[in-house]
Fold:
Amino acid sequence: MKTKARLLHRLLTLGVLALAPLRISAQTADTPKGVTVNGYGRTKVGVLLNNGDYFISENTLNLRMNYTAGPTDFYANPVLYEQNGVVQPPVLREIYLDYHEELFDLRVGKQQIIWGKGDGVFITDLISTKDLSQFLVPDFEEIRRAVTAVKFDLYQGYSSLELVWVPWFTPTISPDPSSIWAPSISFSVKPTINPPTTPKFNLGNSEYFAKYSYLGESFDVSLMGGWLWNDTPAFTVISKTFSPPAGLTELTVQPEYYQTYVVGYAASATAGPLILRSEGAYYGVKRYHADLMLFPTGYAEKPAIQYLVGADYSIAGITMGMQFIQNVILKYDSALLEDRFKNTLTLVVSRTFFRDTVKAEFFSYVGLNDYDALIKPKITWTPADGLELFTGMYIFLGDSGDFGQYHDNNGLYLGAKLSF
Structure:
């Protein structure tokens, strides 16, 4: 821990030195008063419970810089990571230019665009892709990736229209095949996986999205749609070898991205003490693993629906929320290797103590098809303004399914975060 403290101190010192000129110049008459800089430094370490190996060992320096001049804003979010004792190349998480008028906003650049109402799920959150290299271990803010886009928002009364053009494709980051977070693959033999190829940069491969929203006093609703690339590649079989009587002995697959269209909705409303929410999406085409004897490519294309219904409730200082999520494969074929209906529950409970200086929270995914779960308890103590000390766990239950496949990855982590 002393080593971690020294690394955090070093990163914070670098950040303070980098920010010092900005803080000083911001107080001079020649510098626009619209310059603001904030962010945080964080150290975090986690170990696997089954063998004590580190699965998290990192320090983070996250800077958020904003410059305002009249109707124009410039925002940049550079991040510096130190992982396993090695300082990684700087990451520019977001960088964009805003232009504001009374009836419209225009944003151009690398940005996160957040749609939908769900907690921990991405049903109508169609635009920003994800970093799943560590599955669902990082904070959701870090899981969501920015995309380079042009976003135009038009306002009229209680209504708004959002149009988004994504000129080039940004894929979801999948776990390395050697990582403990690499998902299981539903083939009878371990395949040889070729590197994926991303779509070429041209106008025909752009993504387009639109969302209409109405914000009322006690409810809001959005309708959205998009023409997009599936950001997580699907495996296409390009060669296979059958050797009787053993059957399939060799398999080579090619990860492929494909285009599809999506239409959906998101809505929320208050009903007495409850906050109700729902969202859903229809996918024109999704690819599902299928029996190789009937589908030589290894997949079948089917339309699909995904939706959720949920509610939040607060009583005696305790906030609770529950969601039911269902995936439905339409035009189902018995040769598919996935269930027609896939059902998941999420549960969140949180409460603060000691004059809001301590927060206990519990978040869980429960897979109803495979009877598996991911449980994420966390406790955060705020002893002073801007300083957080936290500890938590990742507990995987079950032997198979989205969460049970990681039953050997149960872990405990702790850390500190200093915001400025």
Q: What stands out?
A: The chain has three helices and 22 strands. The longest helix spans residues 2-25. Confidence is low (pLDDT under 50) at residues 1-31.
